[in-house]
Amino acid sequence: MRAFKFLTADGLGVFSRFAWPLPGVGPGAWIESEVGLCRAGIHACRPIDLPYWIAPVLYEVELDGPVDEQPLKVVAPRGRLIRRIDAWNAAAQEAYGRMCFARADELLAAAPERRGWAPPPEIPLTASAQLGFMTARIAEQLGGTDAHVEERKRQSAWLVERLELD
Fold first, then answer.
1. Is 16 helix (H, G, I), strand (E, B) or coil?
2. Angle at 84 between CA 52 and CA 91, to 5 degrees
3. Residue 105 CB burial class (10 angstroms; 0-12, 13-18, ≥19)
4. I need a surface site. Which of 5, 11, 81, 139 has the fewest CB within 10 A?
5. Residue range(s) defining the domain that contains residue 52
6. What pLDDT sits at residue 9?
7. In angstroms, rounded to a whole number, what is the distance separating the alpha carbons of residues 96 and 160?
């Protein structure tokens, strides 16, 4: 299965701190693990899951074996990094940040009494995960859980289109 994996700038898992074998001329080495949701296994995301896991570097990952599809991720016993998604760079991260700021403004325009919920302007545009989360929370506060989910879908669509992931 083709999926995606966000890592730190130095190739570490954001939560696990696992040092992934990075792709070079070809794919990286296969990694194997027993599967234990949120404890073990190769965790990755589908395009719809991208905004929940944003980090500095994005890779396409190939998963092998039975893939456990969860609401916000997928987990498999085996995986390898295929290629870095070079389109997820500083410019794309800043564009995503601008989109999130603009979307928060758009949402709050309908509720001017809630302007205090806006992301503070001192947050850097490259704080992508934080800005996406804040914008989704504003949507949720104004329209409930379904509005949060719809906002995350909007963010996913933006990422897929901008990064040409289809």
1. coil
2. 70
3. middle
4. 11
5. 2-84
6. 94
7. 12
Task: Compute how many other C-beta atoms are within 10 angstroms of the C-beta atom of residue 39.
Answer: 11
Do 78 and 117 share a domain, yes or no? no
Q: Which pLDDT value is given to residue 39?
A: 77
- What is the number of structural domains in the chain? 2
Lay out the sheet containing 2-7: strands in order across. Answer: 2-7, 57-64, 78-84, 31-32
Q: Is 0.70 surpassed by the pTM of this model? A: yes
Task: Write the CB contacts of 24 (distance below 8 Å, at least 6 apart in sequence).
Answer: none
Q: Which of 65, 84, 103 is the last residue of a domain?
A: 84
For 86, other C-beta atoms within 10 Å of its C-beta total 10
End-of-domain residue from the set 35, 53, 84: 84
The string of DSSP codes covering 49-85 is GGGGS--SEEEEEEEES--EE-SS-EEESEEEEEEE-
Per-residue pLDDT of the chain (166 residues; tens, 9 = 90+): 999 999 999 999 998 999 999 998 899 999 999 887 677 789 999 999 999 999 999 999 999 999 999 999 999 999 999 999 999 999 999 999 999 999 999 999 988 888 888 888 888 888 899 999 999 999 999 999 999 999 999 999 999 999 999 8
Task: Provide the 3-class DSSP secondary structure of residue 46.
Answer: coil
